Amino acid sequence: MSELFERNGELIQRRWPKVWHRLSVENSAELRADLVDGQGSTLSINGIQLTSRHDRTREALLQAGSLPVDSPVVHVYGTGLGDLQLQLLERTGLERLYVHILNGAVFSLVLQLLDQQAWLSDSRVVLLYAGDLAEIQLPYFALPSELVLADDYNAKIRDRLISETHLTFNNREFNADNPEIAERLQASVERVRADANAAELFATCSGREVFVIATGPSLEQHFDTLRAVREQAQRPLFICVDTAYRPLIEHGIKPDVVVTIDQRISTRHLPCDATRDITLVYMPMVDPEVLGGWQGKRYVAYSASPVYRDMREQLPKAQLFVGGSVIHPAVDLAVHMGASQITLFGADFAFPNNKTHAGWNDGDLGPQVGAARHWVLDGHGQRVKTQLNFRSYLCELERYIAGHPQVAFYNSSRAGAMIVGTTFHPELTR
C-alpha cells in the first residue's frame, strides 16, 4: 500500500467509513494505467484519458462553467483527478458538493497515485457511490471519461446520465415546424376527428392481468406459451407493440390490442388483413395507409410531445406516456385500463444471443448487432450488447414503473436487460 493511499484512505475512512470499506477492496490491479504526456500530463485507464493531457485546470474551469454559479448544491459524477472538485469548492456560495464514484477501482488507483486530500477534507464534500441512489441528482456534471469507464454497480446511473445528456439532441427530429411532420399530421386530421378516444378504454379491465408484448429476441422463447395461454377461457389481456404484431400472428397468436406511434411503421409491420377483432391504439403520426386498412376498432391517443400541441387543443383525446419507445404507451395503456399485474415479454432493451429482434432479420428494424458498442446488465448480472437509445428507453420504463407502485410488474426473461422495479415471473421466466 502506497503512502499516498494510506493518507487518502485515513481521511476517507474517518469521514465515510462505509465508502472506504468498499474502496479498500476494489481491484485496481486489473486496470491498464498509463501516464500520458502533452503540454501537461494525465492518467489513461484502459486507453481512456481521465482528463486533458494539456491543461487540466482550464478543462475543469470549462466544466465548472456549465453548472449554475448560484446553486448551493452541485453533484459531480466521476472523481477524475480532483480538478473539477477543486474548482467548484472555490465558490463561496457552495454549501454541498456531492461526488458520486462511477468506478471504484479507478478512484482507488487515483488514491494510490495522487494526493486527493485537498478536496476530500473540505467539510462541504459528500462522497458516495453513484449506484447507491436510484436516480440522478441535479444540477450535475458527469465526467465524460468515467461515463465510459463506469463499472457494473454504477451502470444504471451511468445510463440515466447519458440519457439525460442526450435528451435535447434526441428530440431534435420531433419539431412541430418540420414540414414532413406537419404534412403527416394534416393527412390524419379527419381520421383523428372520427376515431374513438383512447380514454374510452380506460378502466375497462380493472384488476385484470395484462401481458405487454414487445419484440426483443427473448420473445421467441415464449411463442408456445403465449399461444397456449391465448386459447384459455380466462386469460390475461394481450397488448402488443407494432413490431411484435407480425411475429405473433405468424405463430398463431392474436393480440387483443396493438399499440403503434411511429411514422415509419407501415403495412409491412402491421398487415391489415384479418384485423377485424383486433383493437388498434395509435398516435396521429402513424402511416395513414395503416389506419385506412385496419379493420378493427381504432382509438386515438397523444403523447406530451410538442408535435401534438395544436392537435391536442383542437381535437382533445387521451394522453399516453411516451419515453422514446412504443413499449411505454403500451404499458401506460395497460395501467390506465386497470391492470393490477403486468407481465412483460420481449422487453429486452438489448441484443441477447446476438439478435436484435424476434421475428425480424438483423437490421430490419434498425442498426445491426455488429453496430452495438454499449452494454447493460442482463437478468443474470452479465453484460449484454445494446445501443444507446435502448438504454434510454429502459431508463424511462424504470422511472415509469417506480411511479406506479400499485401495479405488480413482472419480467418473463433473464436474457435481456435487468429492469429495475420488476420481478421475474415465477412460472413464465426463461
TrEMBL record:
* Identification of the protein by name: DUF115 domain-containing protein
Q: Give the organism the record lists.
A: Pseudomonas migulae
Q: Where is the 6-hydroxymethylpterin diphosphokinase MptE-like domain?
A: 196-353
